[in-house]
Each structure stands twice: as structure tokens, then as C-alpha cells.
Amino acid sequence: MLALKRKKKHEDHVDESWLIPYADILTLLLALFIVLFAASEVNSQKFQEISDSFNKELQGGTGILDNQSAVETFEETSKLAEPNDADPTEGEATTPPEGEEEEEQKIEMTAEEIEQLALAEDYKELAAIQDKVKAYIAERNMEDKLEAELTSKGLVLKIKDGVLYGSGSANLSEDAQMVAEEIGKMLVTDPPRSIFIEGHTDNIPSTSSAFPSNWELSSARAINFMKILLENEELDPAKFSATGFAEHQPIAGNDSEEGRAENRRVEVLISLYSEEQTD
């Protein structure tokens, strides 16, 4: 009787076999939440790269033997899955190639620096013309009759009155025409520059009927000299102008013959600024 009672009590015991699948479900749920949490912390760009890499490698063949490079490639791309790895593209944009860096430095030049650079080139060209004029002066022994001076406005050629014209006349002598023709050759520049011809006299009033005042005399001398220059077809007439200043811009005193001779002159100003800068 005792044995039968014990067997019956054992059969009435509650069945706890349901705990095993329940524990499995909890474990799977925990694993799922861990995976979701980890996925939310991964960089989306890197996650896409990993996904693309897997798709590329898994679709390359039907098995491991069909695509033997899949293992090696996976080892390389799997490094991207590390969430703490630094982005390999970070920092590259801050170091541009050498060519681009030089181009940026050119762009960053100020307008003033560009202008100074252009002026330096213009001074260099005008200095070369000045050397040619000085060589011509030395060859002809005309140091007391012709001067070349580089100023802030450009290169100024000063031709004394006695070299070009007779007293009270605006007509150039034959020697003066040769001088003007030689000077015209030196005025050819690329790009062309503005040329200003200026006529000047002393303070003695003109008594010629053709030139009632020094204004007409100085202007006529400047214009006649300009006409000789423009016989050179390489020169652009649009870049030339002629002006008479009479006795109002002296460079020496008019109280002596030497001073008045200095003031009776024609000046040719070759502008410092080329056509490209004035446009």
C-alpha cells in the first residue's frame, strides 16, 4: 500500500518542462535587443559598406571553392565593423595636393599685391626702353640735348628745343626728324602704352604771326613731333595725345639764357600702365 501511494504522489507532481523553451525565448529576446542596440551605435555609412562588401562577396560564387578570395576580402572589410575605428577618410580633405595649395595661394593674393606685381613688370619694361635711349644718346653724343628719366608716371624723354626747332618755329629740322624716327622705334611696346607728347616754352612771348602766343607755339611743336612719331606704322595713333603747356611748367629759371633753354623743350611720356591695366 505504501508503494502505491508514493507512485501516485509522484504522478501528481506539476510538469515544469515549459521552463526550457521559455528560457530560450528570453535568451533570444535578450540577444535581439543587444544586436539592435549595437546596430544603432554603428555608423550608418560603415554599416552600408559592410553590407555591400558582404553582398559582393557572397554573390561572387555558389560556394567557398568557387570564390576563394572571399575569405581574404572579408578579413579586410571586416575591419570597418569596428565602431571605435577612426574614419579612414577623416583628415584627408585638410591636406590638399601641392598643385591645389599653390593655386589657393594665388587666389588669396590681394588686389594690391597683384597691382604691385604688375607695376614691377611695367617698370622692368620701361627700364629696358630707357637703356636703349641712353645707348642712343651716348652713340650720338647728345647728353646735353636728350634725356631719359624713369618717374612714377612712366618713362619721360626730354628733347631740348634747339635739337628740334629753330627759334620761334614749330617745324622740325632734318636732324630732328631723324631723332623723332629713332625715338618712335623705341616706343613700340607689347601691349601698347599710352604716349603723351607735351610742348613747353620759356616765358618770352611769341611774336610770330603764325603763333600769337606761347600756347599755340608749344601745342604746334608737340603736334608736329607726334606726326613724325606716327609715321611708324607699328604705333597706334589711338594711344597718342599732344598738349601745349606754354611757359607754365618750367623746369629751370627763366632769368638766364641757360634756364630758358632748359624750359624750351618737348617731353614724351611713356605711361607706366600698359593697356591691359587701364582697360
Strand order of the largest sheet: 1-2-5-3-4
The proportion of residues in beta strands is 5-15%
- The gyration radius over C-alpha positions equals 48 Å
| Count of all domains | 2
Number of helices: 11
Oligomer: single chain
Instruction: Just give the CATH class of the largest domain.
Output: Alpha Beta
Q: SS-based structural class? A: alpha+beta
Considering DSSP H and I runs of 4 or more, what fraction of the residues is helical? 40-55%
Q: In CATH terms, what is the fold-level topology of the largest domain? A: 60s Ribosomal Protein L30, Chain: A
CATH level-4 homologous superfamily of the largest domain: OmpA-like domain
The string of secondary-structure elements, in order, is HHHHHHEEHHEHEHEH
> From the coordinates shown, what is the CATH architecture of the largest domain?
2-Layer Sandwich
First and last CA, distance: 128 Å
Give the rounded overall mean pLDDT. 76
Major β-sheet, in short? 5 strands, mixed
Number of strands: 5
Task: List low-pLDDT spans.
Answer: 61-81
Overall 3D geometry?
rod-shaped
Summarize this structure as a short list of keywords or feature phrases.
single chain, 279 residues, alpha+beta, 60s Ribosomal Protein L30, Chain: A, 2 domains, 11 helices, 5 strands
